[in-house]
Amino acid sequence: MKLYNYFRSSASFRVRIALALKGLSYDYLPVHLVKGEHKQESYAAIAPSRLVPTLELDDGRHLSQSMAIIEYLDEMHPQPRLLPLDPFRRAQVRSLAQLIACEIHPLNNLRVLKYLVRDLKVDEEAKNAWYRHWVRDGLEAFERELQQLPASTYCYGDQPTLADCCLVPQIFNGQRFNVDFGGLTRTMAAFDACMKHPAFQQAQPSACPDNEA
Amino acid sequence: MKLYNYFRSSASFRVRIALALKGLSYDYLPVHLVKGEHKQESYAAIAPSRLVPTLELDDGRHLSQSMAIIEYLDEMHPQPRLLPLDPFRRAQVRSLAQLIACEIHPLNNLRVLKYLVRDLKVDEEAKNAWYRHWVRDGLEAFERELQQLPASTYCYGDQPTLADCCLVPQIFNGQRFNVDFGGLTRTMAAFDACMKHPAFQQAQPSACPDNEA
Q1: How far, in Å, CA of B137 to CA of A115, rounded?
Q2: Which domain holds residue B49?
Q3: What DSSP letter does each residue of A56-72 carry, written as one string?
Q4: Which residues in chain A touch residue B54, judged by CB atoms under 8 angstroms apart?
Q5: Looking at B35, B60, B80, which one is the last position of a domain?
Q6: Which residue in chain B has the smallest CA separation from A100?
Q7: Which residue of A has its CA nearest to B70?
Q8: Do A49 and B145 touch (CB under 8 A)?
Q9: Which of A23, A33, B4, B186 might form a disulfide with B146, Cβ 3.0–4.6 angstroms?
Q10: Cβ contact, residue pair A120, B130, below 8 Å
Q11: How many C-beta neighbours within 10 Å does residue B158 have?
Q12: Per-residue pLDDT of chain A (213 residues; tens, 9 = 90+)
């Protein structure tokens, strides 16, 4: 398999975590978002949506959208499982993942921040306030959801799930913008547990070949 | 089952479509977003994230996040299927749904538009331009994805899927803000096919008990 991705892209990071958890090897193909490589014809031919990540299967077919890719990997390579077998529990994990992927992250990705600055003439301080507002607001909702669940090491139970694949990149992003994580007890405990796991360390931006830090 | 929802909420509309496609009956419990009913204690006790929709099962358990709810319904009530059985095809449908639910809709929901106006002091014209920009930009990506697929009645194949459950509410929203749908040939053909289907008609905002139109 090949993964078209960018070290700092949260959605790419999610898929790298899933691949690492499952011990699947892949070719890392960097797509430099800040240089606009995702909009070039060579990438657009592979990914009509021009977003990262894209997973290329060994037979040459492509898949996009990080959660769809991760569920595909989980169905094809079920060990270790990233979604519980029970339908209700599986829905709860998907719900946690979507709370991040549909409610927090979309408001803070690169193209949105660019629009705020370029089209709405928002200054640096207001842009950062926007960023922090949505991350904090969303993570508070996430924390309230976790508080309803039985005690666990990770977001949902004692093994990493799709929810952890989404949470960790969101925390990394929030750290870059100095988001206040105070009081997010369960959330940050899950994050800390993840960061002790070798798969999460292996997938993190600083471990990527295109890392610029 | 009971569905806590709001007639104009896109995420609620998605779940109503899925319930209607499967012929499942439910109690319609309106939560008035504009009046802030989702933030009241009575609702927060049911939905810690304070978002709509929430599905209450007959045993009293709750599920949130529209795509997670729809996948749960599809697993528990598999006829008619809203996701193909083949893992790759299923991933393609999820990817289309997520292209709307993770890339377009989050930028245009009520709380985001409120933040633009209240915190960023964006005027009505710039707010509408923001809205139209993200819907148009996202639907162009969606259209490019559809153009890669074999000809079909709906978004993916000749039966409605999760992708159609997400597309139709997004088009409804876009219509309210006069988005230009020109050139979105496959997308709008799928929308038109959906709107000839009784389940989509039955689920639309104007057919809801809390409709204010």
Answers
A1: 12
A2: 2-80
A3: EPTTS-EEESHHHHHHH
A4: none
A5: B80
A6: B102
A7: A91
A8: yes
A9: B186
A10: yes
A11: 9
A12: 999 999 999 999 999 999 999 999 999 999 998 888 998 999 999 999 999 999 999 999 999 999 999 999 999 999 999 999 999 999 999 999 999 999 999 999 889 999 999 999 999 999 999 999 999 999 999 999 999 999 999 999 999 999 999 999 999 999 999 999 999 999 999 999 999 999 999 999 999 999 986
